[in-house]
Amino acid sequence: MALSHPLRQATRYAALGAALALAACGPRARTSVSDADSTASSAEPSGPFGSGTITGTVRFVGPVPENQAIDMRAAPACRAIYHSQPRQLSVIVNPNGTLANVFVYVKRGLPQDSHYAPVADTVRLAVRGCQYHPRIVGLRVGQALAIRNDDVVSHQIDAPGVTTRPFTIPLDAGRTGEHVFRGTEVMVPLQGAYYRWMRAYIGVLAHPFFDITGTSGHFTIPRLPPGTYTVEAWHEAYGRRTTTVTVQDSTTQRVTFSYSITARETSD
After folding, report:
1. How far is Cα 266 from Cα 182, in angstroms, rounded to an integer?
2. What global pTM score does this model have?
3. 204 close to 173: Cβ distance less than 8 angstroms
4. Do strands 123-128 and 144-149 pair parallel, antiparallel, or not at all (unpaired)?
5. Looking at residue 68, what DSSP letter applies?
6. Which residues contact 133 (CB under 8 A, 6 or more apart)?
7. Chunked mean pLDDT (size 10), the chain, 268 residues
8. Alpha carbons 119 and 10: distance in angstroms, whole number
9. Is 135 exposed, middle or buried (0-12, 13-18, 19+ CB in 10 A)?
C-alpha cells in the first residue's frame, strides 16, 4: 500500500511568517497555513470504528496510453538523472491490468457526530528529478506534510487549494518544508513555480478511511463501523467513480472500479 492510517495526535506548527524566518538560518523550511486552529487533545475521544472492511481493485480496460513527454531543457541538472525521455507519471497501468495512483476513500456515510482525533505522524514527499514522489498522497486534517528537495536545484512548491487555503514553500537544494492542513479537500494539487510540469495531488480527509492503489492496483479500507457508504475513487487523468457499499461488523465487502482511455469522469 502507498499509505498507512496512523491515529495519533497531530503536532502544532508555527505560523508562516516565523517559519520562513527560521528557514533562512536552519536546515529546514517550515510553513503552516491554517483554516482554523482546531488541533485536538490526545485525551479526546476518536471514532467510531468497527470491524468492517471495504477492499477491491481498480482495473484499467483497453489500450494503455503513453504519458506525456517532459521537455526538461530548462532544468539540465534534473534531465541528467534520467536514462530515457522523462515523462509525466499521470497514468501508471500495472502488468496485471490495474491502475496505480488512484485515491479511494469514504465520501459519505459516517455518522454525522463522528470525530477522529488528529494524528502526529508526518507524511513525506520528495522532489527528485524535478518531479514529486509519490505522485498521490493521502493524509488527515491536522497532519503534517513534509516535502524534501532531493535535487541540486531550488524549487518553489505551490498549492493552489480550492477549499483549503493556498500555500507556497520555497525549497533550496537539500531542504525540507512542512505544511499542516486544517481543512478537507480531494484533491489539493501541488505544482512547481519554476518548472510547471511538476505535479502531485494530496487527499486531505477528516477521517482515516482511505487508501491509494499501488503496484497491485489494490486498496483496503479497514475498521469501518456498520453502515452504508458512498465510496469514491479519484484519478488525476480519468476522474471519479463512485459506488455504494453496505458494511457490517466482521465482514469484508469487495468492490471493483474500472477506468478506460475513452471513459469520461462520472460522480454522484
Report:
1. 28
2. 0.81
3. no
4. parallel
5. P
6. 125, 126, 127
7. 39 37 39 35 70 98 94 95 95 97 98 90 96 97 96 94 86 95 93 94 97 98 97 97 97 97 56
8. 4
9. buried
